[in-house]
Amino acid sequence: MSTGKEQVIYWLIRMVMYAIVMVIGYIIFDIVWHGLPALSWDFISQYPRKGGAEGGILPAIVGTLSLLVGTIAVSLPLGICSAIYLSEYAEQSRFTAMIRLAIITLAGVPSIVYGLFGLGFFVLLLNFGTSILAGCLTLACMILPTIIVSSEEALRAVPSGYRDASLALGATKWETIRTNVLPYSLSGIITGSILGIGRAAGETAPILLTVAAFYLPRLPNSIFDQVMALPYHLYILATQHPEADKVLPLQYATALVLLLLVLGLSLGAIFIRIHFRKKYRW
Q1: Comparing C-alpha atoms, which of 219, 257, 261, 262 is closest to residue 38?
Q2: Phi/psi class of residue 241: alpha, beta or left (left: φ > 0; alpha: ψ in -120 to 50)?
Q3: Where are the domains of the chain?
Q4: Among 96, 233, 237, 267, which residue's beta carbon has the most beta carbons within 10 A?
């Protein structure tokens, strides 16, 4: 009887997996099928014209990359350092447990809430204005909990014997973390970073309130400039543009560029993770 139940559960899980793969595959196929004919070098390298109804999306690509680079530069060091402190230095007390609970809660907060926070704090209170700096800091706050949680789990997964052996040989706490813990946890840290960066690349609500402009046919000159961004550009083309039906090929082409951008970042991070997994085995 138990074997029969296990077989039923096995096939149910398998069918759910197949269904998810089929749905994702259909979405990707639809974007590629409709977006590839409209994708060209001119579309990628030119500036938009006529309110985005013609021309290319170069400012949106540059703006998205600028936001991602700034977000990674802020969130990754802070997230890894916070995880190291919680995992290696902080005492396991009720206060530490409350901090972990708060971080996990923040990881599930809707993105629009982070957008409102960024608008009130970075744009208005700190007077950064609607700028790349405000957008990067808002996105960094949004993905920081994900990076902290995944990095802490990766650090805790390293066997305690690695730490004990290093300390027994006279190494300091930081030397032990730097040489015997971090290298073996980098693959897990990178995995969490991929999830956070992918979320930041596709979010619209936070940048809508802090940095994004729909039609801005020029490249940014400083971190205090507004920029176009692929998610917001796609949102306007699909829902707010007066000629939404006529620009349907541009919608699919923009979605395809965003998909390829996120895929490229993810593949790069995956290759780095594989490299560290092969170099540091335990």
Answers
A1: 257
A2: beta
A3: 39-279
A4: 233
The pTM of the full predicted model, rounded to 2 decimals, is 0.88
Separation CA 122–CA 64 (nearest Å): 19
DSSP 8-state symbol, 218:
S
Span 170-217, pLDDT tens digits: 888 888 888 888 888 888 888 778 878 888 888 888 998 899 888 888
Sign of the dihedral defined by the CA atoms of residues 148, 151, 157, 162, in that order:
negative
Tokens 């977006």 belong to 35
CA distance 275 to 15: 33
Q: How far apart are the first and last CA of the chain?
A: 40
* Secondary structure of 106-119 as H, E, C letters: HHCCCHHHHHHHHH
User: CA dist 78 to 44, 71, 158, Å?
Assistant: 33, 11, 21
Amino acid occupying residue 65: L
Which of 106, 179, 180 lies closest to 147 in space, CA to CA?
Answer: 106
- One-letter amino acid at 59 equals P
Query: Domain 39-279 class?
Result: mainly alpha
